[in-house]
Design a protein that fits this description.
Largest interface: A-B, 69 and 69 residues
Order of helices and strands of chain A: EHHEHEHEHEEEHEEEHHHEHEEEHH
Shape of chain A: globular
Radius of gyration of chain A: 21 Å
Oligomer: homotetramer
Number of strands of chain A: 14
Mean pLDDT of chain A: 97
Strand order of the largest sheet of chain A: 2-10-9-8-5-3-4
Structural class of chain A: alpha/beta
Low-confidence stretches of chain A: none
Largest sheet of chain A: 7 strands, mixed
Amino acid sequence: MTKISVKEPVITLTAGPVQAYPRITRAMSRPVHYDFDVYFQAFYEEVARKAATALRVEAPALILHAEPAVGLEAAAASLISPDDVVLNLASGVYGKGFGYWAARYAKEVVEIEVPYNDDIKPEQVADMLRRRPDVAIVTAVHHDTPSGTLNPVEEIGRLVRDHGALFLVDAVSSFAGMDIHPDDCCADIFVTGPGKCLGGAPGLTLVTVSERAWAHMEGNSACPSASILSLTDWKNAWSKEAAFPFTPAIAEVNGLDAALDAYLDEGPETVWARHDLTARACRAGVQALGLTLWPVREEIAAPTTTAIRVPEGLTDEEIVAAMRDSFGTIISYGRAETKGKLLRIGHMGPVAEPVYALVAVTTLGGTLKRLGRKVDVGAAVDAATAVILAAGT
Amino acid sequence: MTKISVKEPVITLTAGPVQAYPRITRAMSRPVHYDFDVYFQAFYEEVARKAATALRVEAPALILHAEPAVGLEAAAASLISPDDVVLNLASGVYGKGFGYWAARYAKEVVEIEVPYNDDIKPEQVADMLRRRPDVAIVTAVHHDTPSGTLNPVEEIGRLVRDHGALFLVDAVSSFAGMDIHPDDCCADIFVTGPGKCLGGAPGLTLVTVSERAWAHMEGNSACPSASILSLTDWKNAWSKEAAFPFTPAIAEVNGLDAALDAYLDEGPETVWARHDLTARACRAGVQALGLTLWPVREEIAAPTTTAIRVPEGLTDEEIVAAMRDSFGTIISYGRAETKGKLLRIGHMGPVAEPVYALVAVTTLGGTLKRLGRKVDVGAAVDAATAVILAAGT
Amino acid sequence: MTKISVKEPVITLTAGPVQAYPRITRAMSRPVHYDFDVYFQAFYEEVARKAATALRVEAPALILHAEPAVGLEAAAASLISPDDVVLNLASGVYGKGFGYWAARYAKEVVEIEVPYNDDIKPEQVADMLRRRPDVAIVTAVHHDTPSGTLNPVEEIGRLVRDHGALFLVDAVSSFAGMDIHPDDCCADIFVTGPGKCLGGAPGLTLVTVSERAWAHMEGNSACPSASILSLTDWKNAWSKEAAFPFTPAIAEVNGLDAALDAYLDEGPETVWARHDLTARACRAGVQALGLTLWPVREEIAAPTTTAIRVPEGLTDEEIVAAMRDSFGTIISYGRAETKGKLLRIGHMGPVAEPVYALVAVTTLGGTLKRLGRKVDVGAAVDAATAVILAAGT
Amino acid sequence: MTKISVKEPVITLTAGPVQAYPRITRAMSRPVHYDFDVYFQAFYEEVARKAATALRVEAPALILHAEPAVGLEAAAASLISPDDVVLNLASGVYGKGFGYWAARYAKEVVEIEVPYNDDIKPEQVADMLRRRPDVAIVTAVHHDTPSGTLNPVEEIGRLVRDHGALFLVDAVSSFAGMDIHPDDCCADIFVTGPGKCLGGAPGLTLVTVSERAWAHMEGNSACPSASILSLTDWKNAWSKEAAFPFTPAIAEVNGLDAALDAYLDEGPETVWARHDLTARACRAGVQALGLTLWPVREEIAAPTTTAIRVPEGLTDEEIVAAMRDSFGTIISYGRAETKGKLLRIGHMGPVAEPVYALVAVTTLGGTLKRLGRKVDVGAAVDAATAVILAAGT
């Protein structure tokens, strides 16, 4: 093991990659099997089916062998044809970024953009769809992680379905941390992965694809093949009858298997509830510290990430460095447009436990003290604790 | 853990994915660290530098976060500009396949193709370069795995360098199993990965890029960015100063670290020697079984894979199935053009040990017996053993 | 990880410790839980019950937290009172050794001893019990590992039961490798462990105790308490109601859990069958090599260990060293009285697979060649293969 | 993996078994090697020498293959002869308990006993040694874990050395968490283990033995042999020349190797400092919660365990259950005499990090609130934080 002079963090409270469940990291040490062997083929099919169970869809889930940013690029490349007008919904860095990919493949991209601490309103979408009946594909991010905000994809999805367009949803950092599934939001393509709320490692993408979306890709003359950017290459890869287009990431599939087991064994509702409780306790605590939530309204704050404004007069870098130095806890910066403006406390997977709200509040509070701020950490702990105790058991 | 009705193989003797060293699978169970944390950044730099040490180059190696087939596609996409004439050398399925990627990006692809059991001759390359002085990029596969054959990339590399072209070498399944490094073959882009002779899991690509190749990519107006197909996005990712373009596959990097340690700790020369000895013992054994090597001349047989013709009157499928059923050993089929024509015994990583030549010979021999063939397994074992014992210690 | 200049063995074919199943070593990396926590207490009870299922007894199995040699010492210390006449059956080093422990605690030890390549005959026991009606406890080793021989404990057990004595059986290296359970041999104390045929690590003892044996211990005024040598201290430790007398070996219990799962998931009959087949193939092979089995009759050869005489003119040490050096395979020496006289090839756990009979035969054969012997390895492989293929599937 | 209806704890803050470092649990999944193989023998010697380095002694450390309670019983059995008068120092449950073992083997045991929240005073020992010049062996516990209190073994050790007696020290739960080594306290037998402050699993004992102590055991006609209770059986087991008396717990030795690496790589002084800081922060916090430390004076409170009185009107059981239920954190009960009277927060190994003092204080505080107590958690967090921040970095 490479010795690094920097000490490892003690507790990781980031918005992904996240601390993985030990049962998942153990699973990643399983033997590496040959992808053409009947054992692995049967195993792979089971994992694809188990993922479908977790995603609450019928068909085996599509597993792509790179992290979800790649899966999203591939979804854009495969789905969006040179004939398509795409409506891209941007309420944050990831939504905005998807628009660039869409523009690479689409005939035209129209966009609804809101401030990166706000959400897209269904009526904005309805209005745009009225004005642009030629929109064939709508793309949205459910939880724009760099903002810690949710978009109402369920309502938007119904509008898109009524319009007759296809709906592509990035649920990378919300699925498995709350009650969201492809059918809940009429998603034709729904993208997520094992490395956020499932508490696994990054390195794979999970995708569900509706029959309409497959048909659209088949009609897309520019849809890649023999390429990492192709979804269609992998359409039947779950089946023993089909060869893998290229070598699957065996160890990541082993980890995914365990991640799905962990989620289904514990019970999705139980998992969502502790994500929600942890986030509520954390939000109560950080606000009692005198900090301001980044989301413009608390109801759009994701249960999987608490984003807070960097206090006036301090920088994100100094807060993160001091927190790590004094307490060994680490949290996430913002990203791109939100970098420097906010800090993010992740509530995903194994740290989606109320005690970690207390860890976040006390160590962030202690850090602010160290940096010379007068903060009432006691009030913050009391607020977070009150939320936890009110939840009963 | 998903229970699969198919029994796991007992011994995997495939040409990749391969049985991983236990120390590598253990490493894949290390904690998943946050990619923006100072610990992981320092760790990542160390791994990139350690990879450079193994590859015997100066600059930290480029790590791409998907398996080498993706890395090769990305290399084609990034390096080959619409102005480039590419000479593609095809002595097997992988060489041929690279030509299709090259054609996607190049002005023109010229090709030298030889039968898939033979190698490219340096004089063929010299001749072509004389005829086509406009060739700007030459691409070759060192070990065309689906054929188990080597190409003389050292000699070819010198010709290419003299010509002033760039040389892209796929050494995915030869590097770390024999004495081949970027500088040995004047490679401007040299692609390999942890999942073959390094004995790790598939899921990453290792690339070295010469200054000339970086300059060529910078001059390539079609070079992808914000894309899994971009090499330039990741150019400086090893440095703490640069952000990762997307989330690295943390667990795979942990595994790579251990794979490089295993290789460097044991000593490259020692590792190559046991790959070579195992392959020589295996070739002696299978020939004494009455089987025919696939390579047209034994000197082009790779030390990392022994490819043999499927005996007349039998199919690859029935041999593989019977071998697995009676002995629990599994070997590789051919692929695409070579599927059905040959079988491959891998000598990579932990099974590049002479005893596994005996395992291959005895279980393949026993399988042929089961399928009604008269084979002299005793002679085969004697032949393999003689090679092993002659190696002394 | 400590770097050792000696290379690790490539394949371990010993009579214990054995190569563990990967799923068991993975389980040993589970989190270490606090023994007084309700989770661990519930888990421990489940493991004790699962062990009972495997052992085919009703009561949760007794788990002792040290390897079976310690468990056997503790059984002697706890069961044998100063009033007891013990009949010890010695057909090997372990049987003989148990007599010394018995003598430490008993009023008198009488012994039946046979040559260490032979077995105890039921009629010998019957005769002795007639002559010594005061025998209260009979002790036997089912598989005397240093000899690779079995004793007919089923028949002996019935005689002991009829006599009214207690029967203590050491089944450490036979249980889980063949069809033997406490009730099969009327055992009042039956001792085994996870580190042999269950394919786990050494470090725990599994014991079943009959009601009669518990009663005898309760009447034994010299029965230890507050001691590692006490069985009674641990009698109720499986129950949440009872405290652990001292800290259990948490990681070993995690491993035991996985070992039992592996055994029960695969199916005991299937596991026994592959131990048997491997041993039969191995015995056929080594005899065809011209070697002599150590057991005086093949029917008493254990299906879990093949013991062979060291050929005239060679030493065990030179054979083991040369075999390791040329092939990386390791096998077991004899022990105490049998050291220097025999070598042992283990068929336990993951290497109880027919292919490993071929590994043993070819590498032992090759080693004998290296040491100057004329051996017909081909005939040996043919003999072993014939056994394997005859087993069909 | 056995599914247990009880949820696993989220954070374990117990006084042993403790949460192990991931690198140690990973090491426990290393291959199980054969104990008679040259690789394992060389490895074992290295581990014994590495343990000596950590213990700051010359001779390879003695490794016993069961947890330290067994190691202590064995030390008593081996060292104490029927001719020995033993002075046992009892300031807690473990010290008292050792006296019972001593009484099993000694001619006579004299004892100094103090209340279980106090420490033994050197002058008490001096006085007793004056009165009983025939005392040949003095036995003490450094950190009596069930009380969370330290005894001044350095001063006592000098008195014992001057007296000419042998000194046996139980440092199981202090070594590696603070600056204590055999030579610091003139210990002739010094007992510890990997499962407390080294942050590993329980299951082994580490012992150092002085030449004088070995000589005493050699003169002890009652010293066990061929027994788990024998230290002399294992005296030379570290050496390749000597056979292991019984099978070592291979996986535990693998874990010990990693535990020692973790300790030595980080640097003992650094490890002790974070144990100390965590304990000081925790003590400040729990006192600010209005709780009373169990130790009669804070300066005898161990840096590895904070023991607090169970508040009037509450029971230990209800506190532990409510804390686990609301927050997922678990702490230790008292034991035997101290059970019901105190609760213990462990600061050992990976949780000897200041942030866990905050976890302990906030979750214990929240629990008291849940149970109807008025506690000022804010003041407690402030007190703990002040200690942490004062430590600077």
